[in-house]
């Protein structure tokens, strides 16, 4: 038996191909949206992977440092290092801000990293150009997505930095590229004010009789000095010694240090389950809407194509064609349309993904799931046309 | 009359019920022998199309008896379980317009019926080509319907109606869209094919040009058929 659907498609291939391309662009948007979600999740995981930590020690009862603000004293790491099971404890700060380069600026997450060497938690684990930070101040390593190049001069608050190295896939959970600078500079940057503000603050402190006591001449200087330094970091990144369970060490930190410690799994749950959950629901809604629109388009196209063949269907029924042959013809056409659409959509998504400003991750599972979803939608969408075709009276082929 | 071909006795068809019931066919009797071509003529609303639909097993008659060959296919109810197979294998249709399937070439338009009946594609196409040759359109075997002239399309439609060697062909105004010359050619082909394949052919027509060619004519008026001898002039 010849394929009626195949012959019809070959006969009107132009109509099919152009319709398939239109549908394919819609499917491409759908796959890209799924890729945007996957990219957000992967950004979150990359953030955790690249930090090199087994535990994140943060301010008590906060979800910091990525989901909430967290502030811990910068000397806490010393007491953590004395605890059983802890191999490394390193301060880190995170500050999302506009980093200026010349007349333009880039939104970036500025990471303050403690002095150390490659492999120290918080440090970029690899570079694609240049070198790591070796000086205590005013050097930076930037993610390549920021657009910075080795040798560029950046401005963070009032200080200037030279980009000495470039790294890749070091982004915040919201996809902003990271710029690594020395910890002390980052601590300063978090609270650094302009000169007028500093002057006003000193004036207010000096006018306060509680701080400016004639009988205690050094008190005012001490208070002002404490106001112009920052002794806090956002978190302490901890690595665990072999043979120790991260959960047990985290519980121990929480119990004895009055801090909160998260394991890798808990932090991933915070990032994926809480931080990007709303975005995920938003994207999910888009996916549902796009699926419904795709189904409506396929249904309309197949319905129209079937309506165009009503007389032929009546003739086919009159000359003894089985209902299932006619239904199969319509369904095969819908599936062919879906197949063309999926191929076009997959190609579109593959070529469009790198053009997006944020990371779009197209995973094979989504493609396979998308393929079967498209087929299912096409089958469902063809039901209306099939019902109409099966209701066609073969007597319509006979005049009168 | 003959015991083969198609015989109809006391066929009735009523649409609706109660006060609004319409008797489209009141008493139809026909007997068409194998190899015979008869005309069925009548004014609009006389019941021609209803009779054709009943004969084509497309609608159910209300009462009566139909015999196809030696087999009673209707006797106050269908005696054949699969009407679709009956239409496919034992009744050929030729329509007012050719109604060829636009996305199949000429050969496959004709070969489709045997393919639907389960005949292998190559064999079905061979049968189709044999008929196309008999109808002198074998040179357009690979053409698409849109590439054919009106006369060629109608000849292909006749080939489709004949391909399963049905004992009866129902032709619904097959010459309506054609000029005199082509109309006569189509009727000649139907006569030739009826003789060649021992097929009973019923031609519903209004066409004054072809009516004189029938040896027997059934007039239908108000749902009742009357048989009369035709001129049977044959073909010039």
TrEMBL record, chain A:
Chief place of localization: membrane
InterPro entries given in the database record: ABC-4/HrtB_transporter, ABC3_permease_C, MacB_PCD
Keyword Membrane set for record: yes
UniProt KW keywords: Cell membrane, Membrane, Transmembrane, Transmembrane helix, Transport
Subcellular location: Cell membrane
Presence of keyword Cell inner membrane: no
Transmembrane annotation, as ranges: 12-37, 283-305, 326-348, 368-390
Annotated ranges, domain MacB-like periplasmic core: 21-252
Protein's name according to its UniProt entry: FtsX-like permease family protein
Organism of derivation: Aromatoleum anaerobium
UniProtKB/TrEMBL annotation, chain B:
GO molecular function: ATP binding
InterPro entries, per database record: AAA+_ATPase, ABC_transporter-like_ATP-bd, ABC_transporter-like_CS, ABC_transpr_LolD-like, MacB-like_ATP-bd, P-loop_NTPase
Source species, domain of life: Bacteria
Transmembrane is among the record's keywords: no
Pfam families: ABC_tran (PF00005)
Keywords in alphabetical order: ATP-binding, Cell membrane, Membrane, Nucleotide-binding, Transport
CDD domains attached to this UniProt entry: ABC_MJ0796_LolCDE_FtsE (cd03255)
Ranges for domain ABC transporter: 6-236
Keyword Cytoplasm: no
Protein name: ATP-binding cassette domain-containing protein
Organism: Aromatoleum anaerobium
Phylogenetic classification of the source organism: Bacteria, Pseudomonadati, Pseudomonadota, Betaproteobacteria, Rhodocyclales
């Amino acid at each position: 038996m010849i394929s009626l659907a195949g012959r019809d498609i070959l006969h009107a291939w132009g109509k099919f191909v152009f319709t398939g391309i239109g549908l394919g662009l819609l499917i491409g948007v759908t796959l890209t949206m799924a890729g945007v979600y996957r990219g957000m999740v992967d950004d979150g995981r990359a953030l955790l992977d690249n930090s090199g930590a087994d535990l994140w020690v943060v301010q008590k009862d906060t979800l910091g440092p990525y989901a909430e603000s967290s502030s811990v004293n910068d000397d806490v790491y010393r007491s953590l290092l004395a605890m059983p099971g802890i191999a490394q404890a390193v301060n880190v700060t995170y500050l999302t801000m506009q980093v200026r380069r010349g007349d333009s600026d880039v939104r970036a997450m500025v990471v303050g990293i403690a002095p150390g060497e490659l492999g120290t938690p918080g440090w970029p684990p690899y570079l694609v150009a240049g070198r790591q930070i070796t000086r205590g101040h005013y050097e930076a390593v930037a993610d390549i997505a920021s657009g910075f190049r080795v040798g560029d001069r950046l401005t963070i608050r009032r200080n200037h930095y030279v980009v000495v190295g470039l790294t890749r896939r070091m982004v915040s959970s919201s996809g902003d590229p990271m710029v690594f600078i020395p910890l002390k500079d980052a601590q300063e940057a978090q609270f650094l004010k302009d000169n007028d503000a500093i002057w006003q603050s000193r004036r207010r402190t000096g006018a306060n009789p509680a701080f400016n006591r004639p009988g205690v001449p050094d008190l005012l200087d001490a208070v002002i000095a404490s106001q112009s330094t920052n002794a806090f970091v956002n978190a302490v990144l901890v690595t665990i010694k072999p043979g120790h369970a991260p959960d047990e060490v985290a519980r121990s930190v929480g119990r004895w240090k009055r801090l909160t410690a998260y394991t890798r799994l808990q932090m991933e749950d915070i990032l994926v389950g809480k931080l990007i959950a709303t975005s995920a629901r938003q994207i999910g809604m888009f996916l549902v809407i796009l699926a419904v629109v795709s189904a409506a388009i396929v249904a309309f196209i197949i319905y129209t194509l079937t309506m165009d063949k009503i007389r032929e269907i009546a003739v086919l029924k009159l000359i003894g064609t089985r209902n299932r042959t006619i239904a199969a013809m319509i369904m095969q056409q819908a599936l062919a349309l879906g197949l063309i659409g999926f191929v076009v959509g997959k190609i579109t998504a593959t070529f469009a993904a790198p053009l997006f400003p944020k990371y779009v991750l197209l995973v094979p599972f989504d493609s396979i799931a998308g393929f079967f979803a498209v087929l299912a939608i096409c089958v469902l969408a063809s039901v209306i046309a099939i019902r109409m075709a099966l209701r066609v009276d073969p007597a319509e082929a006979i005049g009168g | 009359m003959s015991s083969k071909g198609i015989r109809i006795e006391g066929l009735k068809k009523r649409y609706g019920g109660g006060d609004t019931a319409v008797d489209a066919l009141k008493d139809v009797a026909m007997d068409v022998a194998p190899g015979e071509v008869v005309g069925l003529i009548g004014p609009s609303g006389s019941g021609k199309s209803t009779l054709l639909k009943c004969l084509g097993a497309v609608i159910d008659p209300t009462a009566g008896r139909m015999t196809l060959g030696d087999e009673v296919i209707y006797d106050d109810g269908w005696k054949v379980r699969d009407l679709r197979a009956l239409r496919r294998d034992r009744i050929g249709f030729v329509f007012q317009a050719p109604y060829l399937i636009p996305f199949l070439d000429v050969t496959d338009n004709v070969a489709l019926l045997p393919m639907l009946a389960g005949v292998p594609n190559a064999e079905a196409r061979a049968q189709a080509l044999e008929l196309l040759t008999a109808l002198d359109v074998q040179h357009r075997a690979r053409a698409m319907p849109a590439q054919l002239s009106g006369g060629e399309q109608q000849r292909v439609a006749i080939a489709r109606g004949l391909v399963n060697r049905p004992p009866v062909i129902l032709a619904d105004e097959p010459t309506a869209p054609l000029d005199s010359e082509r109309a006569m050619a189509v009727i000649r082909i139907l006569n030739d094919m009826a003789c060649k394949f021992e097929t009973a052919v019923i031609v519903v027509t209004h066409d004054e040009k072809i009516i004189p060619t029938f040896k027997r004519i059934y007039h239908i008026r108000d749902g009742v058929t009357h048989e009369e001898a035709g001129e049977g002039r044959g073909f010039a």
